[in-house]
Amino acid sequence: LQDEYLDQWGKALEQSPLANQQTDVASLQASIAYHMNASLFRTQHNLEKVAVYQALAHSMADKLLLDWNRTQQRYRKDNPKRVYYLSMEFLLGRALDNAMLALHMKTAYQEAVQGLGFRLEDLLEQERDPALGNGGLGRLAACYMDAAAALDLPMWGYGLRYQYGLFRQSVQQGFQVEAPDDWLMRHHPWEFPRDIKYDVQFYGYVATKMNDKGESRLFWESDHKIRAVAYDVPVPGKDGFCGNIRLWASQPPHHGGFDLDAFNQGNYDQSIASLKDAFLLTSVLYPNDNHQAGKELRLKQEYFFVSASVQDVVHRFKRYRCPWSEFPNKVAFQLNDTHPTLAIPELQRILVDVEGLAWDDAWDIVTRTFAFTNHTVLPEALEKWPIYVMEKVLPRHMQIIYDLNLFFLQKVEEKFPGDRDLLNRVSIIEEASPQQVRMAFLAVVGSHSVNGVAALHSELVVKELFNDFSLYYGKDKFINITNGISPRRWLYQANPGLRDLITHTLGSEDWVADLPQLQKLAPFADNLEFQQQWMAIKYANKVRLTQWIRDDCGLTVDPRALFDIQVKRMHEYKRQFLNILGVIHRYRVLLQMSPEARRRVPPRVVIFGGKAAPGYAIAKLVIKLINSVADVVNNDPVIDDHLKVVYLPDYNVSLAEKIVPASDISQHISTAGTEASGTSNMKFVINGGLILGTVDGANIEIRDEIGEDNIFLFGTLADQVADIRHAQKYHGVLLDANLQSVLDAIQAGVFGDASIFNPLIDTLTYGGDFYLISEDFDAYIKRQNDVDALFLQKAAWAAKSIRCTAGMGFFSSDRSIGQYASRIWKVDKTALGNGSTSTAD
Ligand code: F58
Questions:
Q1: 607 and 585 co-located in one domain
Q2: Residues 35 and 86 in one domain
Q3: How many other CB atoms sit within 10 Å of the CB of residue 749?
Q4: Rounded to the nearest whole angstrom, what is the distance from the C-alpha of residue 461 to the centroid of ligand 1?
Q5: pTM for this structure?
């Protein structure tokens, strides 16, 4: 458009209602009423809470949109180096509360809806929690997008818009039951469909053709195409910045997927076959956490996602007509684990086959553009794809991977001549039957930087997972960036009581953007009055949680009891089994005590929550065991309120926001060396919750920051695990005596039909106790006794709780993102430009 028209558009927008939104209560009410009528086609005579929530969400989204356009327009004009965070998962949680707080509009909206006859808290509960992620990895992506927006860092997320998110969980007769998460059944006001589309192809064949310049080129051709369409999700930042996550949905490529000829011939199934195909592709998030699904559809999801994203980024880059050599100075791709690794051969393919670059020039660009974050060392979670599947679905990519591997192995051979074993070990192709592509190796070879997510994990990544690679590339390529969490969602939003006390004590809200300031709370740790205020907030949060427990589980628990919480995905390595075995031990000890002795033990409420992958039988049995134990313990009149066991169904982000501020103690008890980092540990501690944990993942750095005295650590160390497992193999597992009597009780039917638990108990005996539950049992029980003893000393507990929060400054996602930006992406905060507000990208 010519400049004069551009100006006119700018002026028109300035005059529009969008640019002239007022934030007084009457104007907010007007905007809610407007959306009720204009966006939802409803009137005040036909109102449900959900409709009011939607009108309110639309009203809030208007404000975000303006910021979104301004921010993106500025990036478009200034063309800074941009970061693209490629992640199959974004576990965002609810949007409305977060947006209102980011834009400082919650109080005004609260008043506005109250004046219209509703309570804001009730309306917030109407929002569906988008569950486009499994657990830690997906939630980390959300915290990182939040930090980038808060820091005004030009970073976009790219992901998939699954029609069905992570399944919804209910519990029936103690067993997990899964139902589809149909989160889009109702209109979702927080996404904006764009007219941006790319075709992605699968299958087909590779042919040689002449290009325009008469050069012979390889072309990948296929009739099997699916169209990716973009949905943008705004990420509220600070001071008018707004980030973006672009999610791709699959659609049929042409004619809306309808085959009229087939229909006319009466072949109805055939007439909509391509529609079904396209719909299926992004229909559902694979529900495995730390385990590879290995299905062809999953591979297609991965490729669909990276192909659309890389095409979009290349399209944006080409708009500026820079030479290709500039690409790494304008683009940084961060791979959130190996799931987006196909972006590496995809960019190589586009540069060589489509753009006509020489192989080596293209590879130089690719390797300067990509960086890779590893999130696990568990062998079962490391992605490998059988070559016969890759050759069928992505024939050209398979050729590229073979070539990349060949050139890589030649270089390794040059550096370490004659070492056949080494070549075998580092080859991207695993010589197994069937042959497989090792995606993590492809990610390492195609990236300039590889990082783990906590200090111990990054050490294991170098020493174990990629040891040969670190010898070949040198140590500098392998770094650590310890995970972080958003202080905005996990303290400011989730714990308003504590937020206000901290703000009042420190004199301003500056600590949110500069989290190490929390250290200024430390001098108050022994101040009795401050302790009382602090613990009163904790108590209020516990009361709020008891109401949820009553509503969700029909169980009444006493908020004065010690709240002991373990909420995370159900997995053997996370050892919820150890926790429930410990609960049974406690139950038995309490039963043997005199009433007086029992009264001297602080009453406990042990709370569990977390989903098991639908195909993970052992994890599902642990859920059943927890519920069976709960049935017995909660109804035992001798035990009364001394011990209660709660399993909260359908654990998700919004439930976590209620649970996290209410813990006295939370458990992070993975077998040492298995939990890459953990992030809920950070969330609990920043909210003044103490933790009971193993010397694993980020627990170690939390200890270093808050001090050894303020954390209950126990158990085997990572470097002892291999020896213990080795010894078990030869001498068998000698079960801890207390543990043996707990198992005896289960097998005697104390918790119902014992036979169903046999496979679970076998993991300790016949299975060789791979996760070292027996080995750690005694230390665990002793540490739990220390927790009891401290809980009786109210002042000492409160002081530790305050020191916990005070020491957590390091774990802000802003710190993590700052480290990624300076150490990997080499991007800076952009200077605030003055871009006009016409349509952005
Ligand atoms: C988690 N991984 C780690 N993977 O287990 C946890 O220690 C870490 O704190 C977190 O990442 C963030 O770094 C994880 O959540 C998955 O859920 C994958 C989803 C896709 C399939 C394979 C597992």
A1: yes
A2: no
A3: 11
A4: 15
A5: 0.97
